[in-house]
Amino acid sequence: MNAAIYASGAVCWRIIDSKLRILLIHRSRYNDVSLPKGKVDAGESLPQAAVREIEEETGLKVALGVPLGVTRYTMPKGIDKVVHYWAAEVTDEAQLASAFLPNSEVAALEWVSLKKARTMLSYPRDAEILDNFKALVDQGVTSTYAMIVLRHGKAISPEKFDGDDHDRTLTDRGRAQAANVAAAIAAWGPEKIVTSTAKRCRSTVVPLEKLMGLQARRTDAISQRAYEWGESDVRGVIGKLVRAKQSAVVCSHGPVIPEIIREIALATGTPTGSYVRSSAALETGGYSVVHLSRTLPASGIIAIESHEPHI
């Protein structure tokens, strides 16, 4: 049996003359109209591939928003293709910076209304993804920001570490996870990084700091040490980040992450159901992306997606 091919893309949108418009691509090779997407390269994450493919096909640099679903279909020769989609807002700056020119892959780009986009798309599977995006539009929650809750990479076990638990270091695998997760998380365009003061957390966010050109704020308020001593202030840290309405990464520890997710839910008036709790069960190097509305805070958590490490 042939292995499935994985790809990712997005419903790219922007406001033009006060009206929402969707980006469609006219592909030369297939003589069709579709949403921007492309295959995942070896060693690449799905979110990373989505952002790269959008830039390669359209010249637009975007940050991902809410996940919109997955399509599955069979290609010639019986190979299955699985495509993951997100929403992606295109800023005026990104549009102006685009250097797109018609080429052998993409003949033209076209910004159209939601209604027109649905009639123009060549494949029903793309129309289904567009319908998922329309549901967000109907709710008034298209503009979102992400709270990315990251568990530190694999660290040396306490039994093998001679020193204070707060100073435990990452293993080789943990350092590889940190580098891998940085490229993936960058797809959401985080504007802030907050990390526990524990060395294993500080080390985990170093590749992301370098990639994004950001300096992480270190705080003991979300450390395992403070949590176990009853001195943590998860609510204070999360409340400040939620109020800022900017995409942010919060790097902490297994025992603390359920409290972080819970505080995000409480800060947005979201019932803490099983889907909220399950998003806190992360392996080392794993992360959950909690999507919140910039314009309608009372709408609560729009979506949560969890990603486990590939290393």
Describe the structure.
This protein is α/β, with parallel strands linked by helices and 311 residues long. It folds into 2 domains: 135 residues, Nucleoside Triphosphate Pyrophosphohydrolase (Alpha-Beta Complex), CATH 3.90.79.10; 164 residues, Phosphoglycerate mutase-like (Rossmann fold), CATH 3.40.50. 33% of the residues lie in helices and 29% in strands. Strands 1, 2, 3, 4, 5, 6 and 7 form a 7-stranded mixed β-sheet that branches. Strand 2 and strand 3 form a beta hairpin. The protein is globular. The two termini are 25 Å apart.
Question: What would a concise description of this structure say?
Answer:
It contains ten helices and 13 strands. With 311 residues, the protein is an alpha/beta fold. The protein folds into two domains: 5-139, Nucleoside Triphosphate Pyrophosphohydrolase (Alpha-Beta Complex); 144-307, 3-Layer(aba) Sandwich (Rossmann fold).
Number of domains: 2
Helix content: 25-40%
Give the SSE string.
Answer: EEEEHEEHEHHEHEHEHHEHHEE
Task: Spell out the CATH superfamily of the largest domain.
Answer: Phosphoglycerate mutase-like
- Low-pLDDT residue intervals, each spanning 5 or more residues: none
Distance between the amino and carboxyl termini: 25 Å
Mean pLDDT: 96
Annotation keywords:
10 helices; 311 residues; 2 domains; 7-stranded mixed sheet; alpha/beta; Rossmann fold; 6-stranded mixed sheet
Secondary-structure map with pairings?
Elements: E1 5-16, E2 19-27, E3 32-34, E4 37-39, H1 46-58, E5 63-74, E6 80-89, H2 92-97, E7 106-112, H3 114-120, H4 124-139, E8 144-151, H5 172-185, E9 192-196, H6 199-212, E10 217-219, H7 224-228, H8 234-244, E11 248-252, H9 257-267, H10 274-278, E12 287-293, E13 301-307
